[in-house]
């Protein structure tokens, strides 16, 4: 027995006792790493992607002295590769990681309890339910949105590589793997438009994601923001359990 | 069937010159002495491939382009390389005389002729929007396709549908590959296709006796595997970030990249930036206008030729992806702000309960 388990709660210098909190290790290191790599890559991709679609004002001087669009596109492609490799690593981790690492890859639509959970969380966000339920992983509504985000991400990666293959050439492995996108949209102008729209889908996700993470951290009395740094989820009300 | 040898002799080349040509060619290709005999044999026995050239809903710009080919000259293609047995816009025969040729070719060269189709058939109202020789064109097309070796779909019309298939497509004009499913089809898109690309495709088929390698969309890889953008001589200005911002600005005069003016070069597969037009004189971008993407699927329905970002028509009024995305972000952002406000008010008013 260690000392920590003998002392219930933590004492400060005035002898005030902090409540004992329930904490569960949910997000393993690769999952957290993936989250932050994604965050960085998405910021880079959305910014550079925007400038590829709507380039900044023209550069002066000789063309041979400038490479602005080249650098923007290079940054976009590099970040795209990072995003894709990170997703592959994350998929691998879904197989070897803990139970929570698998959660966002599928929706338990056959589970009535989960479906009611989605409804309850919807009611909670519409201020109709008094209190949210506490879940160790994502709550059912969050789970649903995360799954949608994963699909959007996959769509962006697939269309992104398809568009990349246009420059890489018909003999490239990118075209061999992702050229089928052009069987769906023969005119790559459409692929550009869908890729662009999906980017805005991710922007919407980011707005909602950050808002709900902050909000639930405060209102639902469970840690979210520190959890994606430490991996531990802390539930602040013992009584609720 | 007339062979290549017959044509060569008819053009005044002697037997002696012909054998000389064969041995010289074999020697210069490093093929050895037996190859000369094989080559002569091939030219003496291989028949000129009969070509039937039909016209559906079209504007004849493909024919106009074709007859301006410089390498090879269109007259060499038509008179020496192929046997152009039927082409209703340029042939001398007319009426029943002309239609009889179709019947004859279909019987005599079953499975051996090439069907070149310019334009496409409209399918609405039983195909009556295009009547050719007293019958709907779609029937004539299906009938001649039955016994063809392969079909060449000339131009954007035959390949994708083009302007007559643009929304709302009242005649239901339909590209060839959606009508004929059981024959190899070579798409040669463009509005029109480049003359040398057209004769190049024909030359390939007659020289090698087989179809050129096609890409996923059924286009010959040798002409359609790269974008205009990839081979554009203004590409360095794109990479440098130097764009024409207005039609009459300094950059336009200096010949900078037309990306911001809606050039469709980055999404268009064609050979304009390499082969160019009118015997290699120029091509649209060289003349200061962006590519309009005329060889791409439904290029009429992809918004303005001058928009950098494609307009999306599904949202009622036309908007591009950024406008749609920004509007959605504003709505969601606003909703989040309101939600946060309500959450805060709720927390203040119910603080003591929890």
What keyword list fits this structure?
heterodimer, A: 241 residues, mainly alpha, two-stranded antiparallel ribbon, 2 strands, disordered N terminus, B: 354 residues, alpha/beta, Rossmann fold, Cytochrome-c3 Hydrogenase, Chain A, domain 2, 9 strands, elongated
Offer a quick outline of the entry.
With 241 residues, chain A is mainly α. Chain A has ten helices and two strands, in the order H-E-H-H-H-H-H-H-H-H-H-E. Chain B has a five-stranded parallel beta sheet with strand order 2-1-3-6-7, with helices on both faces. Chain B has a two-stranded antiparallel ribbon with strand order 4-5.
Query: In angstroms, what is the radius of gyration of chain A?
Result: 23 Å
How can the largest sheet of chain B be summarized?
A: 5 strands, parallel
CATH architecture of chain A: Up-down Bundle
Distance between the termini of chain B: 97 Å
- Give the integer mean of the pLDDT values of chain B: 91
Query: What best-fitting shape of chain A do the alpha-carbon axes yield?
Result: elongated
Instruction: Look at the structure and give the CATH class of chain A.
Output: Mainly Alpha
Low-pLDDT runs of 5+ residues of chain A are 1-7
What's the level 1 CATH class of the largest domain in chain B? Alpha Beta
Percent helix range of chain B? 25-40%
Our estimate of the beta-strand percent of chain B is 5-15%
SSE string of chain B, helices as H and strands as E: HHHEHHEHEEEHEHEHHHHHEEH
What is the number of E strands of chain A?
2
